[in-house]
Amino acid sequence: MHYDVIVIGLGAMGAATLYQLAKRGVRVAGVDRHAPPHDLGSSHGDTRITRQAVGEGAAYVPLALNAQRIWRELEAQSGEALFEACGMLMLSSSDTPTRGHGTADFAGETAALAERFGIKHSLLDATQLRTRFPQFGGYGDNAVGYFEPGAGYVRPERAIDVQLRLAEQLGATLYNNTPVTTIESMGQGVRVQTSSGALTADKAIVCAGMWTGRLLGAPVKSLLKVCRQQLFWFELDEPERFAADSPVYILLHGAADTDSCYGFAPLPGENAIKIATEQYLEGCDPDAVDRSVSQADIDAMYDAHVAGRLLGVSRRVLKSKVCTYTITPDFNFIIDAHPQMANVTLVSACSGHGFKHSAGIGEALAMHHCNEPGAVDLSPFSLARFR
Ligand SMILES: Cc1cc2nc3c(=O)[nH]c(=O)nc-3n(C[C@H](O)[C@H](O)[C@H](O)COP(=O)(O)OP(=O)(O)OC[C@H]3O[C@@H](n4cnc5c(N)ncnc54)[C@H](O)[C@@H]3O)c2cc1C
Fold first, then answer.
1. Largest Cα–Cα separation, the chain
2. Hey, whose CA ends up nearest to atom 18 of ligand 1?
3. What is the mean pLDDT of residues 295-307?
4. What pLDDT shows up at residue 121?
């Protein structure tokens, strides 16, 4: 079967790209080694933070804003709740600015971008923080808060599911449980070899998440590092501290990018808060990710990030999950033509901050494919910066 485009990998980036292409009448197929949404890649765990003033850099802001618009459009079409605009508090209690995703002063850059793009926000001193957000503690009088009311969280599994279902209704073909083994450029197109036969297309867009390096090999592989991350759902002793309209939060409490944690208020019906930190030191093999979380891991997380900082939260973990970031050397995305394979576009797994942009990235890729005017400029994510 020959398609205009084959999207390889149907997680956050692939589902969005497939949907946006199908919406534009492109003859498109999506292929995944599993049956998305699933919990074996980088897009599971119930919630993902979305922010508007994206401290990772100005190039991301239009993608995040477009994604929020698209979540609302998808909600209207599907009847599913995808995006909860509960606001976001970034609480900085460190004497030195905290690094985040490659940005030296993550909170400072966030506030600067909010000013630059006219994004609604407020800055809070320690007294205002204590009054307004009594669920957080352990900071001194020098602490500052950045509150963004238009931020919140997205439901990743639902968002993927909705986009895949809508894409199928619009004519896309889905090949689930079908690993792609090789991609070859040939003449004006590509040949995609799968476990159950070959497909051809004019173009392939590779959104294979943490398996991208393995699928594409050198030179892409050397730019991607897969880092295992852990998610913890700590049971609440004082649920009244985390009201239904509690914001998502990013707590910055040291100079390094690992001196931070982020989390969510309980989802309806839950009595636990999901919280996580980030680690970039240890890489892992995407096909041998250790999915167990030990009591020692739980204790380390609680002692470093929860105790004294999130009030009314017990040491008891009701649920835990392992997920992976696939990071680039500068923590920024790669969205570009493959440097050696004609007709192949590469969309990296987006370094632990991609979900909030995924719907916007899918739309931008589809608009560029269809030569539509007004598409978001994706050149800041090109491979040229590594040459
Ligand atoms: C713990 C954690 C917390 C995060 N928090 C946030 C957050 O709060 N906000 C935010 O914006 N971002 C966050 N992120 C980042 C965001 O979730 C990722 O950037 C994004 O989900 C990556 O999507 P993806 O499509 O690249 O990868 P995935 O969703 O993993 O999709 C890749 C797909 O490719 C398929 N595949 C791979 N190889 C093949 C093959 N050979 N053949 C066929 N199919 C293949 C896989 O089965 C998979 O379905 C977080 C990530 C993690 C892990």
1. 65
2. 354
3. 96
4. 98
